[in-house]
Amino acid sequence: MTLQVKLIPVTPFQQNCALIWDSETKDAAVIDPGGDVATIVAAIAQEGVRVTDIFLTHGHLDHAGGAQELSEKLGVKITGPGEQDDFLLRGIKVQADSFGFAAENCTPDAWLAEGEVITIGGTEFAVLHCPGHTPGHMVFVSRALNFGIFGDVLFRNSVGRTDFPYGDSAALIASIKEKLMVLPDDFTFICGHGAASTIGAERQSNPFIR
Q: In the CATH scheme, what is the code of domain 3-205?
C-alpha cells in the first residue's frame, strides 16, 4: 500500500490542504480544506481519486473554511477536530467576513479524541490531541508509514502561534515534546503551512524546542 500526497495551498493564508490517497485503490481523504473549494475539487478530478472522508486538524478559518461546502459537494462526512474547537468552527463565517472573503461555519459529523484511529486511503493513523495552538487540535500519525499530518502544531524551524486568547504556549511545547519528538528522526510530516520536515531536522534546528 502506497499513499500519495498532494498539497493544495488555499486561501490568502496559503494553507496546505492535503489530498491523500492510496495509489492502488484510489481511495482518498481531504485534510483541512480551508477554502478555494473549486481548486480542491479540480485537484481531486485531476488525480482521478474517490474521496471518502474530510478530516480537520483544528477549527481555524484557514483550515476548515471550505469543509462544509466540500462535504456537501462530495457527499462525504467531516470528522474532527476535537470538540474543544467547536466555538471556532461556529465562528468561521464572521471571521471570514472580517478578512473579506466567503466561508461557511462548519458542523462536523463526528469529533475526534486522543487514542482514536482514523483511516486515510486504507492506512490507519493514530489521533493525538496536541493543544496549544487551539484547544482541540489533533495530529494524525502513521507509525507504519513513518508519516504524519501535524496541522499548525509543528513547522519547519517553527511552531504554531499561541497569541490568541485561547492559546497556550506551555501546552503547545508540552504536546510537541511529549507526543511528537518521541517519534523517530526519519519520521516525515507535513505542516499546515510551508514545507514538510522530519522529526530529526526539527530536533537539530528548531529554536523553539532545542
A: 3.60.15.10
